[in-house]
Design goal:
Layout lengths: L1 H30 L3 H7 L1 H34 L1
Helix pairs in contact: 1-3
Amino acid sequence: MDNMINGYVESCALVKARIGELTLQRSSLERQGDTCTIKELDLDRRIKLLYCEYGQMQEVLFALRGYARRREQSAET
């Protein structure tokens, strides 16, 4: 269970880092006035999807941690 939780934590960090990279890229292109490249790369949609994925991963992580906590408590009694 701990390995699964750690895997989700690591994946969440990677997704969050990717969101940062794409947001930085989008901001840079926007400053340059290169809206065509933003549209070509579909950056807005990709960033939005990553935020959705990140939220779902956080929900799963919350559930896994709750389950692990309940298992520990039941083992103690």
